[in-house]
Amino acid sequence: MTRLRRPSAPLLRDSNASIQSRPVRRRDADQPSLPFDAMPSRVEPCLALLKQTVPHGPDWLYEVKWDGYRLAIHIEPKSIRILTRGGHDWTHRFPTIGAGARELGVSTCILDGEAIVLNEEGRSDFGALQRSLGGRGGKRVSTESIFCAFDLLYLDGHDLTRTELSVRRHLLEDLIPETDDAAIRFSQELDLGSEELLEHACQLGLEGIIAKRRDSPYRSGRLGDWQKIKCVQSASFMIVGYEESVSTRGGLGSLLLAGRKGHDWIYVGSVGTGFNRTEAEYLRKTLNSLQTKKPVVPLKGKRLVFSQPTLIAEIEFRGWTHEGSLRHPSYKGLREIQDNAAVFDMNRCD
After folding, report:
1. Which terminus, N or C, of the chain has the lesser number of Cβ atoms within 10 Å?
2. Which of 51, 65, 293, 294 is catalytic?
3. Where is this region: Disordered (predicted)?
4. pLDDT at position 221, please?
């Protein structure tokens, strides 16, 4: 029976393009259970290259840019593994997603996607995801998170990384349930032309969009097959200290931020919005434990407290000033250092 494609959300559209791929080898009738390709223990993720404009043309498909943690789910007959972008096993941190993976009814596969927590408006909220995990270094498990699957790298003995994206997504869609409350959900294509897509996505309060080449294989690294276009810029910066305050939340007025340039730290300004009193108290206590008398950036001030470069913050901002500082920055949460969070490279500003 032909499977009908699921209905699209307002921003999503159906694709009537024919699907073509390389021929699949036949199984050996004498060895029906023998897999063709060994299942890899880990696949280095394909990363999106930041661009300022949306690429046009029928060769591209577009998805929502989810604001969460990149994960890979490895499903085998007797086990489920959930790996972070850096390769750490976080299966125990996402029990709801793990349970959803077991219900897919597939023998072996590797799903690529993003763990997110949705806010009341139905948008992914990185801060809410962080809180569900107990903050940076927290020990909580996240029962609120769901997994948006956008790629399929391995399925029942077949390595799909050399197959074009359109085919991988077609196979992926067949695996994902069509209910709105499932823990594993399919990341659908956006339902507008590229010319008006970004503006509409930004009006809806989304972080941005991801553009992907339909015929591209899955290539690890940041090679341009995938591109991200953001409504508001967001990047990771090192916290190198804070400014004390006697009148604001938890005695913390603002965080001092730095980007990396080679082996040096470059000051990019401070951020004083985006955190509540509880978060401010935690940040101040942690930064005090990392306090140093020798700042890693050339700053002076009576109310400045400097810390060792250890905490990495995700910051939303509107651009750069002529002096090299962030415009209208806002704190979103802390990144996990052990998960290889990439601190902003200042060479990108040159």
Report:
1. N
2. 65
3. 1-36
4. 93
